[in-house]
UniProtKB/TrEMBL annotation:
Keywords: ATP-binding, FAD, Flavoprotein, FMN, Kinase, Multifunctional enzyme, Nucleotide-binding, Nucleotidyltransferase, Transferase
Pfam family, one: Flavokinase
Organism: Onishia taeanensis
Start-end of Low complexity biased regions: 329-346
Protein name from the UniProt record: Bifunctional riboflavin kinase/FMN adenylyltransferase
Domain spans labelled Riboflavin kinase: 183-307
């Protein structure tokens, strides 16, 4: 699959394609259904599947830090779209030049001259162009002029509920990783490369692998029982803090992972971290000793959770990204071990459906919940 950055990198003579436009944040099962729809049409026409996305996402451009947290970075989004059948992703820089285009200019420059679109699949509530003056009916009219078809996306429901990026964010923030996984079609994860950081954990007997996060609103923030996948495929239990480390201070958000009973040099490794259960929010402590005492409590709680909900698959060989289309479910915090065994068989991960304890009064449980009036997928 090709990722094309900007219109100027498109071939001068477009080969034609079947396309869709959107943020595709999370590439959840609703997005996967759109890709299925595109592949069906592309097979009939003998054309490649193209997904048009924006960087930054439009709401990030307009709202900044008040925008909804991202579920996937561009790199991960492109990988997931490829796994769902996209042949190419056109990433358009969302800037003043792009947003100043009228809807008709966008159609003519991007869809017609740029991509040579033969068929377009978008939601009937899709709006675009300057002042958001473009809609589905305009696309259909202009499509008749230029010879491309326009088709509604199919609504994807799970348990009679529409799957959306907004809903996934809400589930993650509430600690319901099992239902979030069902909507995503795979367990939610964070990924990145381990860097040399303050190395404070070593001084208090809790070494951590630190992965920098983008300075954007976080979909998760707090302390979690996690399973971490190493580059050699091993999956190991542990505990992680996601956020700004208010006790020691930080200039950017960080994912700090402590692996249980492991003493290895992980610098430079790219980790995949799967949050399984929410333990608490971030807390500002009165010094390192209080922080150390709380970390001991967090470790004990996470160990107890993993012991109670069955063993973890030690490798990802049978549960890799092929799990993306499974109907994923997991145990509630009070579920029986047999339920944990069931989820371990399907994904290798015991995903909780609720936080393990009430938030401490001093916990910072703010994770930037997305507005519910409009989905940005």
């Amino acid at each position: 699959m090709r990722v094309i950055r900007g219109l100027h990198n498109l071939p001068r003579a477009p080969q034609g394609c079947v396309a869709t436009i959107g943020n595709f944040d999370g590439v959840h099962r609703g997005h996967q259904a759109i890709l299925d729809q595109l592949r069906e049409r592309a097979a009939k026409l003998g054309l490649p599947v193209t997904v048009v996305v924006f960087e930054p996402q439009p709401r990030e451009f307009f709202a900044g830090d008040q925008a909804p947290p991202r579920l996937t970075r561009l790199r991960d989004k492109a990988r997931l779209l490829a796994e769902c059948g996209a042949d190419q992703v056109l990433c358009l820089p969302f800037n003043d030049a792009l947003r100043s285009l009228t809807a008709r200019q966008f159609i003519e420059r991007v869809l017609v001259a740029g991509l040579g679109v033969r068929h377009l699949v978008v939601g009937d509530d899709f709006r675009f162009g300057r002042e958001r003056d473009g809609d589905f009916s305009l696309l259909a009219r202009v499509g008749e002029e230029y010879g491309f078809g326009v088709e509604h996306t199919r609504t994807f429901l799970l348990d009679d509920e529409r799957v959306s990026s907004t809903r996934v964010r809400t589930l993650l923030a509430s600690g319901n990783f099992a239902q979030a996984a069902r909507m995503l079609g795979r367990p939610y994860r964070l990924a990145g490369r381990v860097i040399v950081d303050q190395q404070l954990g070593r001084t208090i007997g809790v070494p951590t692998a630190n992965v920098p996060l983008l300075p954007q609103p976080l979909a998760l923030r707090g302390v979690y029982a996690v399973v971490t996948e190493l580059t050699d495929g091993r999956r190991l239990p542990g505990v992680a803090n996601i956020g700004w480390r208010p006790t020691v201070g930080s200039t950017r958000p960080v994912l700090e992972v402590h692996l249980f009973d492991v003493n290895e040099d992980l610098y430079g490794q790219r980790l995949r971290v799967y949050p399984c259960a929410r333990l608490r929010g971030e807390i500002t402590f009165d010094g390192l000793e209080a922080l150390k005492q709380q970390i001991t409590v967090d470790q004990a709680q996470a160990r107890h959770y993993f012991a109670r909900h069955g063993s973890i698959a030690t490798t990802a060989a049978t549960t890799h990204e092929s799990e993306a289309r499974q109907d994923v479910a997991g145990p509630a915090d009070d579920a029986a071990p047999s339920a944990a065994s069931s989820i371990a068989r399907s994904t290798g991960l015991p995903l909780a459906s609720a936080p393990l304890a009430r938030e401490a009064a001093t916990s910072d449980s703010s994770v930037g919940l997305a507005p519910t009036d409009q989905d940005d997928g």
